[in-house]
Each structure stands twice: as C-alpha cells, then as structure tokens.
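[Q] Does anyone have a clean structure-token version of this?
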Amino acid sequence: MTNAQRGAAIAGVALAVGSVFVSFGASIISMVAIWIAWAVYRRREKPLTRGVSWLVGFGAVGTVVLMVFGFFVLTRVPSSTLADVKRAMDSAAATPQPPPPEWLRKMTPPHAQQQSKMMESVFRSGAFTLWTGVMGVTFMAAIVAAYAGTLGWAASMLLAYGATGAWLPRAETDPSLLTAAPPLPVPPLPRRSTRAQ
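[A] Here you go.
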C-alpha cells in the first residue's frame, strides 16, 4: 500500500465518521448503496463510474427520506389532524378574496383580469395545494439526498482509492458523438433561361 493510498484511506474514514454526525446518519445509506452497486457492477464485469456512483448514493438517500416521511405521516399523524388540514383548505378556498384596488383594475386589461380570476381559482383548489405540498416535500428530500449523498460518495471514493489504488473511472463518451455530422448536400439551383421571352 502506497502513502497515497494510506492517506486516502485515513481521509475516507475521517470523512465517513464526520459525515455520519453531520448528516444524522444519512450518509451511511449512500455509502452502503454505492458499495452494493460496486459489487453488482464488478460481478457483471462492468466498471462503476463516478457519475453513476453519485446517482446511486443520491437516489438511495432520497428514497429512504421519502419512505421515512411517508411512514411518519401514515403512522404518527392522527387522522383528525389531516381532517383539520383538509377543512382549513376548503374554508380558505370558499372564502372570497377582497377585490383589487380600483387603480389596479383600471390599469389591468380586461383579458388579463379574466386570466387572473381563472388562475386564482386554480391556486385556491385543493388539487393545487396537494401538488404544492408534494413538490415541497420532494424538493426537501432532494436537498437532503444531495447533501448526505455527496458526503457518502466522497468518503466512498477515498476509501475505494485506499483499498484498490485506483479512482473510480469516468464515464466514457462515445467518440462518434464528438464528431460533427457530414453536411447535408445542397441541391443545385435551377438555371435561369437566358433566352429572350
């Protein structure tokens, strides 16, 4: 084992231990998923690339975060709370909005006023509120997954180099995609007749 491998192994262990505390243990999920993917790829005799390994770590953490959140909502949140939330959403949708000021209505074209009424009904609908909530939860899960997954991926990269003496390879680009396509043939222009009409 070379000095570079020893240094990478020590740095990988330090990063792995530190990331566990920083990410509340979520980086372990990323590291385990990456090592499982590495074993699967090795069994198939294919190289696990850096990009794919990061996606594996990110996806594993994101999936677990969404599953934990769903389990928490289904088991810990009482049904009366969900009913209260739905009642509040229906009440907010039924409450009429105050009309805009007179000066704003005069400045707004009539067709824009019709569109704003339509958009207001969409924004106040229960489906839009549900969609917004789902997107918010998904966005938060993606942030946590990117943070913890990147920490676990970096620790796994260092540990892999310490164990094997080689970094995970980069993805290979198909050389045919880098060459420009031959230009399309341009049809000849029709020749004008020089005879006098």
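[Q] Thanks! Anything notable?
[A] The first helix runs from residue 3 to 22.
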